[in-house]
Amino acid sequence: MTHRGPWRPTRFQPQNPSKSGCSEGWRCCTPFSFAMAASQGSRHAYNPSGCDVFHSTNDPAGGIQMRQCVPLMTAHGIPTTVATGDMTPYALAVNVQAGRGAVIQGNTKPLLSTSHRSTAGPINHATFLAGVSGGTLGHPATGLVYDPAADGRSRAWGTAAQGPQTWPWSLVLAFLAALRPWGDADPRVLGPGRAYATLFPDIEPHYHMLHGGHPTSPFPDTLRGRKGSSLISRRIRPGPGLQYAPEGTLKVGQAFTAYQWVNGPEVDGRIRWYGSHDGDQWIAAAGITSEGGT
Amino acid sequence: MTEQEDPTLIELAREEVKNLEPAEPDPRGLPDDVPTGDPDSQ
């Protein structure tokens, strides 16, 4: 599944019953992670609560497993792929780099001594890995993690982190490897080289819509500084208009990857402006030429 | 999102997805699924 269009952050759902209203919340890290993953994976077309996912399992005991949450996803047209130790962390990283979110299961022991701590003790736990940034293929620098237990609560052991958070990828790997597949009471750990994870649909490419931007066609579109254009038309600005102070200049022939466009103040007879992935860099249409045809 | 910013890396990853191999089977025989714990319980 390939989506093309704007992206917005997934709403963080804490599992804490006092914040979620779900009386079974503390036993529902997997349903809450699935709920957030479903929202992102459906591009917000389906936005269940963690409690909705929990009740769909018809399992009142809590400690819900990944496969118990899958039927609700399927019923709402969200394809998932469950891996229980037969996926490498490299494969997980590549899939997320390709645009898929993932519910990941691990153990919180490596988190306890960090600012990312969210649990009283070391337990098997599920979080939603919404994306990754930086690094190289299969080895990202960081992960964007929606940990449903990271609700900022204060306890005797300290204050929980507040989700969503950015984890070093090394911490994601440590979390995955520390999983106790035979349960919290069994000291055997999964170890490196494997992951328990559920993959969600691809949401790439996307852009962060600002100023009402429309997606370019093709998406994204590679533009280049146009020979003979005025210097003012090749200024890169934080917004689509001359009122935004220039932060740089696109050289003639230099590439600018555009994800969105808006109509704005006229520059050299043209009113269209092109924006970057994050919507924080804009350039006037008069200053560029398109390779793709927008 | 995911906060992907590098179209080249996204395309590389999409190609690489087609070539991924599963992890070697674990001789211990991993369970199909794993229950999780209570984050607020010591």
Strand content of chain A: 25-35%
In total, the number of strands of chain B is 0
The main sheet of chain A orders its strands as: 2-9-3-4-5-8
Number of helices of chain B: 1
Order of helices and strands of chain A: EHHHHEHEEEEEEHEEEEEEEEEEE
Contiguous low-pLDDT stretches of chain A (5 residues minimum) are none
The general outline of chain A is elongated
Major protein interface: A-B, 71 and 34 residues
Q: Roughly what percent helix of chain A?
A: 10-25%
Mean pLDDT across all amino acids of chain A: 93
Helicity level of chain B, as a percent range? 25-40%
| SSE string of chain B | H
**Which of globular, elongated, flat, extended, rod-shaped describes the shape of chain B?**
flat
> Can you give the mean pLDDT of chain B?
83
Note down, in words, how this protein is organized.
The complex is a heterodimer of chains A (294) and B (42). By secondary structure, chain A is an alpha+beta fold. Helix content of chain A is 18%, strand content 29%. Chain A is built from six helices and 19 strands. In chain A, the strands form six sheets. Chain A has a six-stranded antiparallel β-sheet with strand order 2-9-3-4-5-8, with helices on both faces. In chain A, strand 17 (270-275) and strand 18 form a beta hairpin. In chain A, helix 2 (29-41) packs across helix 3. Chain A starts with a strand and ends with a strand. In chain A, 51% of the residues are buried. The model of chain A has no long low-confidence stretch (mean pLDDT 93). With 42 residues, chain B is mainly α. Helix content of chain B is 26%, strand content 0%. Chain B is flat and about 45 Å long. The relative contact order of chain B is 0.08. The model of chain B has no long low-confidence stretch (mean pLDDT 83). The chains are: A alpha+beta (294), B mainly alpha (42). Chains A and B meet through helix 2, helix 4, strand 2, helix 5 and strand 4 of A and helix 1 of B.
